[in-house]
Amino acid sequence: MSRLFPVPVISLLDKRISGDLKDGPIYAYGTQGRSNFPTSGTRVGQGYSMPEKRHYPAPDGTKAREVVNEITYSADPSDFHYMKVNVPCRSACPALTNIPAYIRCLYEGRHSRSYELNRISNVFPGVLGRICSRPCEDKCRHGEAELGQPVNICHIKRAASDFKEPGHIYMESLFAPLGKKVCVVGAGPAGLAAAHDLAAVGFDVEILEAFDKPGGMLMYGIPEFRLPRDILTAEIDSILRLGVSLRTGVRVGRDVAVEDLLADADAVLISAGCYTSRPMTIPGTELSGVQSGLDFVIRANSGERPDLGKKVLVLGAGFTAFDCARLALRMGAEDVSICIRATEEDLRVTEDEIHEAKRERVKIQGLMVAGRIVGDTRVEGVEFFRTRPEGRRADGRRKTVPIEGSEFIAPADSVLVAIGQGAQPIESPGDRDERSVLKADRETFKTSVPGLYVAGDYLTGPTTVIEAIAAGRRAAEKIAEDLTGKRFREWTVRTEQAEVTYRERHWDFIPRQEMPTVESVRERFNPPERETELGFSLEDALEESKRCYLCYLHYEIDMDRCIYCRYCIDVAPRDCIKMVKEVRLNKVGAITGLVETTNWKDVNAVVIDNSRCIRCGACLKVCPVDCISVSKVEIVERMLRKGK
Amino acid sequence: MAREHLVIVGNGPAADEAAPFLRKGVPDARITIIGREVVSYYRPDLLPDFVAGKIAEEDLWVNPLQFYKERDIKLRLGQNVVSVDFSKMELALEHKEVVRFDGMIIATGGKHRIPEPLARFRELVLTLKTVADAKVWIEKLTRVESVLVIGCDLTSVVFTKAILSLGKQVTFFFDPSSPHLFGRSESIREQLAHKMSDLGAEVVDCSKIAKLVQTREDLIEVTTEAGQFRAGAVGAFFGMVPDVKFLTGSGLHIERGILVDEYLQTNFKRIYAAGDCAQVYHPELCDYWVSIGYSNARELGRIAALNLAGEEVQTEAPLSSIFKIDGRPINTSWWMEA
Amino acid sequence: MRTQARVLAEKVAGIRDSDLFGVRSGALPTWCPGCGYYGIHQGLNSCIQQLGLPHHEVVTVSGIGCAGRYPFFTNTYGVHTAHGRAVPLATGVKMGNPALTVYAVGGDGDGLAIGGGHLPHAARRDVNINYLLFDNSIYGLTKGQPSPSSPMGMKTKASPGGTADRPLNATLMALTYGATFVARLFAGDPNAIAEALVEGTRHNGFSFFHIYTPCVTFDKSFKTWDNLKKWVHPLPEDHDPGDLRTAFDQVLKDDFSLGILFKNE
Amino acid sequence: MLRVDVTVEVCGTAGDGTIAAGGLLNQAMSESGFSVLGFDSYPAEIRGFGRCVTRSRIGDRDISALEDTANVLISLDDSQSRARIPFLAPNAAVFFDSNPPTYIQEEDSLTSLLEPGTVLCGLPIADLATEASGSARGRNLTALGGFAGAFGLDPAPFRKVITRKFEAKGAQVLDANLRCFEAGYDFGREQLSDRVPEIFGPRNITEGPERVMLSGNLAIGRAAIDAGLKLYFGYPITPATPIMEYLAAKLPEQGGQVVQMEDEIASIAAVLGSYYAGSISMTATSGPGFALMTELIGLGVMAEIPAVILNAQRGGPSTGLPTKTEQSDLHAAVFGGPGDSPRIVIAPTNVEECYHFTMKSFRIAEKYQTPVIVLTDFFLDNRVENLPMPKAGEEEKAHDNLYPSESDKGNYKRYAATDSGISPRSIPGTEGFQYTATGLEHTEEGIPDYSADNHMLMSAKRHRKIQAALADLPAPEVISPDGALDVGVISWGSTFGSVLEAVHTAHEHGMKVGAMKITSLFPYHEDLIRAFMNRCDEILIPELNFGGQLADLIGRLHGKDVIRMNRATGVPIAPSLILKEIETLVMEGGK
């Protein structure tokens, strides 16, 4: 089952697909694959041996090119659409992490490279390998109905970070200094990601951080038992070492004015995150023992050990609520319940999370909504109404209604309210919204003030870490363009011929490796910061990485040589190869449908449906005329040395 | 025009009661019972007696196959529903068969709940839900003399009596930390404790089980905060949790069990739930209650069938809020799960 | 580029518009997936299309065997005759209405064994039909017995100790019998088959096409796709199809040189 | 009574290894000490349509028959196995693939048909096989293993027979197959054994007006010329050769051609071919050559292609008496060849008829789209009569093919099962009416189809058509006074001449005797013949053969046994002999 709470796929890919961005020509047209036979025009019986190099006309009639083993690049919208449909995990990742590639690298034992492939797109592999919300796994092809369980992508990422060579240092590809300065406000995921990209293209970057340690929510919002701090700091350092200067303990708007920053730098990026907890609008929140879940987590993560008493009620349904509950247990609470309006199914957390929480004896109580918090000075309990589920909201989340007269009181020593956060207003010029938080354009990140930008959760409201990172990187791209008038990187679809399938059929039957955790709950609690997840052994990691179908491989049948013998269809593991009458395209030239037929007259082509293909390679092995070719198709970020 | 197809998922008491009523109500519909166990319907409530040797295996069986043939009810045994699409009104079986239906009664009952920390020693712990489980016990009891019963739900009590009658010695664990039927009222627990010891069971009120170790064959060492215990076999009785995993993501309203109104209808038209897997909302209570036990399950099964057949029968005010065990009324209107 | 959906769509549309497969019937072939016959089918289809022959003026005559099924998969007139009798019946058809273009198809069992007696006479009679011999050296339809072109020692269910008989060389026979057009081809190269067929169909007289093809189901050792691909190769560049002697020399020294061996207008 | 009595069916599509699995099962069970009786049925196709079913009855004592219900069904292809469900015993165990590559609808699934109580034994056959051997090819063995494991059968015998079967194919193949079997076996033992009934009992059971001179042949040749024959295909054989020689001289005059083929098979094949292409042609032969033609005559009947075959009978069997006359090919002509293959057989009794019947044969062959056999004999072919030059009227020559109408375009049914049985026949070159003529049983559209209903439909159509031809066939002639007769003499072919003379003499002697001439030998005018017989006290049938082939054919129509007068002498029967026979019969009748 896939617990699918909608994760918006970053618009970059969509833009390429919608064809709004037309940078870069289509470089060349594809090879026709390996051949033992002339495809046409030759005298009977000529040339049965495999040609070293061959010429093929481009479909648009342009002159033929050398293409065997050539790597081709394309910015054609339909190619981006292809990537979106056929490499579902990667398109699901806001940061477009090249998932199949890093999984394959790990399998090949190139652990450090595997880590780097992550580092290139998501900056914090070690961190994300632990706490990512994993939109990719919901889309993993291996998770499709008859195919079993999704690949444990996230934990392979962690394995890459766990097993990279000790002291591994990632060699960044850098641009010459530009002599321009950008000031980033907030050292959270968005800020750090932006700082990294800006520094890499030659800006002089300074980060201002209000807390005394960098990391933002990574450092203060995520409990240590999930994310060991050494991992985090190491990855932050690898950003700082690009010459990014960091000033902590500085609260912008209070200690220093935004105007001054603007005067001092060519651009200022505000990525201060969401630290204001949404207040609960019910009677009794002022009572002692009632506190914001976020504050509690931040205190706990700052080394404090707040006393919560024995019985703790957590109001909220997100990751923060679970952090609160699990932290509470580690802070000595004995009976901790998460109280939610709807039901478990509606929780915006992973299944593992629920499972682990329950193992630690966190109770999840559904269908109840707090009416008031009771007690005279100190909290004594919470009065709840039973709720009845009623359909869903537009965003797909469950609607519930309180039931009249169903009040009951649940006793509590303390109550943690974790019902969401918002951005905190910062003293600064520029248009603001009703909550007097700076407004900015979500595409350009520009505010009404020239040179002042906003990005990350501060702009969008609370999202996931991976989304924040992606946002930071996009902001950096925009700022760089605005300040220099040129582009440093471009996205293209890279196609390289692959002679082999890299896979074995029986790998498809390997069961999903689950992340081992500290067995005994007792051991988990002392020390409380002990990491609960133990990480894959190398064996497990390799075993798991074998499971990946490597959807970046593209299988294609060359109709010029196909004899329509249907051998491939016969050995196909599922309905992934089709007898086709016609291929339907949409306006950008992407496939929208393969019209199948069993009428022999109408079978114009036998086509591999790459959106069904599990890359098992069975067809390739049997094809009598070798008309099936495999290529590796990836979206890559190419450095534009001269700029564009 | 194809006959309408009514499917009953599950083959327990509720399902067994529902089927004939459904047939009466809709004489010309196709009716299919899909059960996970390969055996046809039997009396789960008699399993303890079966273990105790009071009754023979044949006594468990209820209907001959002829019963289903006569009523034109299709039995699909040993078949497992893995997902349901209520928008298409299709369900998928484990062997990838897609079955269309026009109405459904979900009566999958419950599955055993084993809380932490016992869960970590799952393989050392026995339960009692199916004939298969019972046979395991019977085989076990030929070799062991002492049994440790942990956590107490309804079955645990009946079961304890059953094995005592075999002359085995029983250590009966109350695990107050783990919520169960009686978890709410101290007084009931005491009364029950007395009852148990009267019957000859050693009653220990203790939680915090640290670990179970199999020291040798047919000997398990249990370490608790109340000291060490030894027993030939360990049984876990923490009640059932509704067996509704296959429905997650189907859009069906599920909290603990499947949420149904007083007519046992779910949030989908013509989809009903009955028995242990249902969580029934009752207007008078302004709350949900969960049926426990054999007779309630049958009653709910009947009501669900009648309603699917087009009648409008309400469930009585929580049937089993007064549920008697050894003469003591037990409230089962709500229960907790860790 | 390969990821260009457009190229794929255009290609498929192109094939549809070319009506290449208008020559097919609606019935899906019952040959095993992977069978070489598909390649031959492909070749004959494009030949008929290249020559622009109206489908109703083509008659396909077959014998018994997997190849016997051929006519059912084409949109031409067809006769699925008795075992081994495709050639004489085709002779009758052609003489019955010389305006028709006639293709006789059959396997090596059909054409060299039970029907073996017809080949010499069709050749010497030089009736203007085209005979395609599908040579896979095995009986497929009857589940794997040796055929007249099976190599000595080939083990099958019917020859557990290996065949004791020497194989027939159909090409050599056709040349010997005086066929006026002889080509040797390979099912794996439909384009070459098409080209030879076009020339052979234009040829006024008996045209013989000896086509090597694998039986993926019953022959795992001899004429497999892999072996055939390894073995076959084109005729020497300088081969003169006009000279019968060089044709003989070719055939005698090399079993797997492919192309139009002999042609006598 | 058998203590163990289990019928196991393995069912799949040809190509699934069904037959192999069934074979291994039989061997293994017998190795285990059971007694086994197996029966396979499978189509000629390797793939495509065609269900393979192997049945094995397994018991602990000798078995002499097959059961009609199975206790175990091992399904390698559910779409095929569905048809076997009705043949399952109650509580049968059904083994099937529990993880097919794609989802299946209830109405296509095997499990949806099973009666309550059927024991479901699902195992992921293809997956297990693929896991075990890297390919699903060995799934038949996996299924077999699942069966053996479930019933707790001793795996050793299975391993043994599998090894025996595959060791020749090399260690790899053998190993793969064994692994497939084991995978299934383990799964069956672990997952399924608890659900199947114990039907194999204790294991290891070990017990155990200007007149001209004209010969028959010439008359036939002239008829062919007058009919507008274009092609003659033939092979020299006595006594038919003169026809070919005559035509070889005459046909070219009218743009025709005589082709001497390599043998009679080629001749009839070419005739069918030219008729298929729309031009009329014929061949003539004698017994031995006719024997060679029987297969292709069958093709003509099945594919409904016209043909005219003249069989000039001579002494047989085999090369027999090439230069002697005989009427012994009647059965060969009427019944010759395999299968229900009704065809038209006519036999002239004199030279004039040789002309007219040959003429008629072209028209009938075309009208009824079937081979027409003209039976003559050495005597008839070679004797010379003086008679007015026979001339066919235009109506006699008229061609009579039923062409499809334009309106049929698009949904042309070459073999439409019409009331008359005659279907529209298109000629190559006609656009939009392409079809394939086939010797396989086929649908009205001409698509191969072996279904029971279709074979019944088409067989009926073909017989109906042949019976309909009676309308165009010469009726029997009766030569007799009115009223009851003491003796009726029935005869065919050249012999009738003698009969006619004998009967006339008898009339002169005042005997109440009649004669009937039968020229349509198949189909024949049953009611007319019966009517004549009913007037006669005794029926005498003289024939130039040993067994009395006409007597066999129509004798049954008479109330009592007919009197046969058979002569296997190679010489025509003299009228006097027949008359003598008549007299004796009349005497006996008088007493």
Description:
The complex is a heterotetramer of chains A (644), B (338), C (265) and D (591). Chain A has 644 residues and is an alpha/beta fold. In chain A, strands 6-5-4-7-19 form a 5-stranded parallel β-sheet, with helices on both faces. In chain A, helix 4 (99-107) runs antiparallel to helix 5 and helix 9 (189-200) packs parallel to helix 17. Chain B is of the alpha/beta class. In chain B, 22% of the residues lie in helices and 30% in strands. Chain B has a 5-stranded parallel β-sheet. A 5-stranded parallel β-sheet of chain B has the order 9-16-10-11-12, with helices on one face. Residues 319-338 of chain B have low confidence and may be disordered. Chain C has a single domain, classed as Rossmann fold (3-Layer(aba) Sandwich), CATH 3.40.50. Chain C contains 9 helices and 10 strands. In chain C, the strands form 2 sheets. An 8-stranded mixed β-sheet of chain C has the order 2-1-3-4-8-7-10-9, with helices on both faces. A two-stranded antiparallel ribbon of chain C has the order 5-6. In chain C, helix 2 (37-51) packs across helix 7. Chain C starts with a helix and ends with a strand. By secondary structure, chain D is of the alpha/beta class. Chain D folds into 3 domains: 5-192, Pyruvate-ferredoxin Oxidoreductase, domain 3, CATH 3.40.920.10; 213-397, Thiamin diphosphate (ThDP)-binding fold, Pyr/PP domains (Rossmann fold); 477-590, Rossmann fold. In chain D, 37% of the residues lie in helices and 20% in strands. Chain D contains 19 helices and 22 strands. Chain D is elongated, with a radius of gyration of 32 Å. The model of chain D is unreliable at 43-48 (pLDDT under 50). Chains in contact: A-B, A-C, A-D, B-D, C-D. The interface between A and C is large, with 65 and 57 residues. Strand 2 of chain C pairs parallel with strand 16 (436-438) of chain D.
